[in-house]
């Protein structure tokens, strides 16, 4: 698994738990408002962080941190994600996955193996506008499979939409909200990328 970096401590990314965030490299979307282009576009990738460095850090923080968020990029693109989560569980960490929901088969594998404690799935737009937001053509019906898996998982979860007013409208947000009946769904403001870079700078500091 290619790891693009680490945030050592957060109180906001894993509800109710002090956690670290591990970022994977690579994504199958090209969202115009993406705040992590260094994790999406191969020509912007830095040298991957060795998993051994991540493990060493997390072992030192056992008892201080309670959870690990695996985000990206898109983590479910990595076939060794189950093993990575297994290793985190063996260290006693609760695990949270941030995903775009495009690989329900991987999601099912993780759920069947009981490797997750919390799931956050991005809902980019109403289904008919997905290509406009993500910059790629794909069958959005696969998202419904992921949504159903998450809802039926028995885990804590949330669905969320980044509201980019250049491409989404209030009507779009209303359509999405109605689909979820307001349950476990939230809208987050699309901040200028520059406001995010302070957080991203910690990714490549010495662990």
Q: How would you briefly describe this protein structure?
A:
By secondary structure, the chain is of the alpha/beta class. 29% of the residues lie in helices and 21% in strands.
Straight-line distance between termini: 18 Å
Rounded mean pLDDT score = 90
How large is the count of helical segments?
7
Query: Major beta sheet, specifics?
Result: 7 strands, mixed
Rg measurement, Å: 16 Å
Could you list the spans in which at least 5 consecutive residues all have pLDDT below 50? Answer: 194-205
Number of DSSP-assigned strands:
7
Widest β-sheet, arrangement of strands: 1-2-3-4-5-6-7
Structural shape? globular
Helix content: 25-40%
Q: What portion of residues belong to β-strands?
A: 15-25%
Instruction: Output the structural class.
Output: alpha/beta
What is the succession of H and E elements? EEHEHEHEHHEHEH
């Amino acid at each position: 698994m290619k790891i693009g970096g680490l945030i050592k401590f957060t109180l906001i990314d894993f509800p109710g738990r002090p956690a670290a965030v591990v970022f994977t490299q690579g994504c199958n979307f090209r969202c115009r408002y993406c705040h992590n282009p260094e994790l999406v576009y191969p020509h912007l990738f830095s040298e991957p962080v060795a998993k051994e460095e991540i493990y060493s850090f997390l072992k030192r923080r056992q008892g201080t941190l309670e959870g690990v968020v695996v985000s990206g990029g898109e983590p479910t693109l990595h076939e060794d994600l189950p093993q990575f989560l297994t290793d985190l569980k063996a260290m006693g960490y609760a695990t949270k996955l941030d995903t775009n929901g495009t690989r329900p088969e991987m999601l099912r594998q993780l759920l069947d193996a009981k490797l997750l404690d919390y799931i956050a799935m991005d809902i980019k737009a109403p289904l008919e506008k997905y290509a406009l937001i993500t910059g790629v053509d794909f069958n959005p019906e696969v998202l419904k499979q992921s949504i159903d898996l998450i809802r039926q998982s028995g885990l804590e979860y949330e669905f969320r939409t980044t509201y980019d007013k250049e491409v989404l409208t209030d009507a779009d947000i209303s359509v999405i909200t109605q689909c979820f009946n307001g349950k476990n769904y939230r809208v987050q403001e699309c901040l200028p990328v520059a406001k995010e870079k302070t957080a991203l700078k910690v990714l490549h500091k010495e662990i």
